[in-house]
Amino acid sequence: MAYQKVNADQRAPGHSQYLDNDDLQATALDLEWDMEKELEEPGFDQFQLDSAENQDLGHSETTDLNLDSIQPATSPKGRFQRLQEESDYISHYTRSAPKSNRCNFCHLLKILCTATILFIFGILIGYYVHTNCPSDALSSGTVDHQLYQEILKTIQAEDIKKSFRNLVQLYKSEDDMEVSKKIKTQWASLGLEDVQFVNYSVLLNLPGLSPSTVTLSSSGECFHPDGRPCGEEARKDSSQDLLYSYAAYSAKGTLKAEVIDVSYGMADDLKRIRKMKNVTNRIALLKLGKLPLLYKLSLLEKAGFGGVLLYIDPCDLPKTVNPSHDTFMVSLNPGGDPSTPGYPSVDGSFRQSRSNLTSLLVQPISASLVAKLISSPKARAKNDVCSPLELPNNEIKVISMQVQTVTKLKTVTNVVGYVMGLTSPDRYIIVGSHHHTAHSYNGQEWASSTAIITAFIRALMPKVKTGWRPDRTIVFCSWGGTAFGNIGSYEWGEDFKTVLQKNVVAYVNLHSPIRGNSTLRPVASPSLQQLVVEKNNFNCTRRTQCPETNISSIQIQGDADYFINHLGVPSVQFAYEDIKTLEGPSFLSEAFFSTQSTTVEEMDPFFNLHETITKLSGEVILQIANEPVLPFNALDIALEVQNNLKGDQPNTHQLLAMASRLRESAELFQSDEMRPANDPKERAPIRIRMLNDILQDMEKSFLVQQVPPGFYRNILYHLDEQTSQFSILMEALECCKPLAPDETLQEARSEVLNSINSAQVYFKAGRDVFKSILDGKN
């Protein structure tokens, strides 16, 4: 959030009289900034968002807070001592009287000439200093902003369009090395430093030699995943699409059993079904969406199901989308190489035998096949009201499903380059996109991602070649193996974990920037939300339409996963979405379709949206990389925690009390350290360095060890925009809803409580360190 600044010459009534007191003048000038006294001033204990930045950040609860503005106190270090002369000052140097009036006249003339020369000389020196030295009136922020605009104005939609089309033509090959080589060559030609491949040999779960099948026992009809009958003709028409309609890392084999409709597979759905039927070794008919797929599969596996037919209900998609015959792929891999969980796949690493990550046979199928299974040929009624696909409870369907996959060791390639920082080269801002992965569906989103990151590099490097450099190092990464569970980013992160834990400042995600064309949807860590709002509002002033900024901290797809959940790094992502898609269930993006119903060029024919994403992301990158003090907000984290505990949640009094203490510590930290550090007159290099170290590690306190499958370990992130509770608390409440609070709920509360307490102690320790440094100086 933004804070109102108070000029150094604004003083409380009576303050000037205090400074004019001769007895206290010298003492007052020696005092350090006493924030403890200023905190006692009326009105300081409450805070309020600046009216210019009072935006709806996607949390309706925020409006309930009555927060007064944080008023920066005035530092005495910016004041100048007044030179006072005694009115009765008389020189006590005595000499003899002048011998004549002429001699006295000559002496006075010499003094007048000397004074005139000195006066002219002083004017010349002052003019030289004024024109050659930076003035205090010209803030560094203004200079930086002008620099950023010089870089960003060279980003053009037409250049992004050309890059996008060149990339799309490359991915026809089954080997992604061709795309990787193209990216490496282009980045190096633009001047990026030390561009190199980082390869890992990883375990990939690939389709079998023939497509999976679903057979109705009653009629003997056999179908492929897209709903077409089994046969040579159908297999020849779209053999690749049929092969790649599978769930990577599923169990393989054949299962014949009754199909049970579990809807979205929520905890309530399963409790209701288990009361009516025996679900052991049955096949679940499961809709994608509303909760992470890995979590829902864990519930089905725990309940005793043997197989899963996974589909997307057409009613969950916009009316313009018709995925009835579309096949799709999903990955059941939570992240990284399954054969080396938690450690990198480097030469000599021990490999575990993990060809499948679940005991369930999982097969994605099209909505048209579901309609045939339940004897309902049409999903939408004549009056255009969508009727969800459902299998009647009194109808028994027995099918035989066959899942065929093969596991192989393959090479996954990352492309990495950087621009070395000038003053803090050991602090990294990581900018991540992803490129085409062989043996999987990718659509065209990877080409948008790569074209955008390349466009920013193209705009940045001419300024670097003139001698300018950012304060911190910017690392550019194009990840491989994303569709199989963010394998490239996970392996790189595990490989360099020791360095990254200490040095990474932020992660800027460019995973899938164009998913629609109707609304801009930023996602950011709580500490970065205010920066994103400011950048979006500035960009909005240059457009005809200025919609209200809707920013949130929700789980997102892509390679930011490792940096958010294992390193606790603040992250940010800008993406365009379809409003109608946002109105549907969350987590539908877990599916990878062979062909998109709307191509990227149809959504953004002139690539203006690509240009906007590039400029917004670029300005955030530049500001994080170049600001003396990291533009992170400690108080916003505390407010987010309090918002997450609002509502009708039982037994949260201890959590609320701890959250209140966290807010108090964050307020003191923000007022004691953030505001002086942003005043150039108050900056000491060691103090700025220590402050930035604290700011970049703020979110690490909110990493919990154990979470349900598919949930973020960083509990500052929600499941979706419809929920504002801590996700692990919400899941524990759902599981224990009909019962009294049990051990699971208590464990979840304990995890949240410990995280809040850790953050509170962290802020307090930071203030104590700074206080000891100031005391040592005195």
Gap between N and C termini, in Å?
33 Å
Q: Within the largest sheet, what's the order of strands?
A: 1-11-13-12-14-17-16
Q: Could you give a short account of the major beta sheet? A: 7 strands, mixed
- Total domain count: 3
The named CATH superfamily of the largest domain: Zn peptidases
CATH architecture of the largest domain: 3-Layer(aba) Sandwich
Give the helix tally. 25
In total, how many beta strands? 19
How large a portion of the residues is in β-strands, by DSSP E? 5-15%
Under CATH, the topology of the largest domain can be stated as Aminopeptidase
Backbone shape? globular
Assembly status: single chain
Mean pLDDT score: 80
Structural class: alpha/beta
Bin the helical content: 25-40%
Which regions have little confidence, pLDDT < 50, spanning 5+ residues? 1-100, 129-139
The CATH class name of the largest domain reads: Alpha Beta
Radius of gyration: 32 Å
Family: Belongs to the peptidase M28 family. M28B subfamily.
Organism: Sapajus apella (Brown-capped capuchin)
InterPro entries: PA_dom_sf, Peptidase_M28, Peptidase_M28B, TFR-like_dimer_dom_sf
Membrane topology: Single-pass type II membrane protein
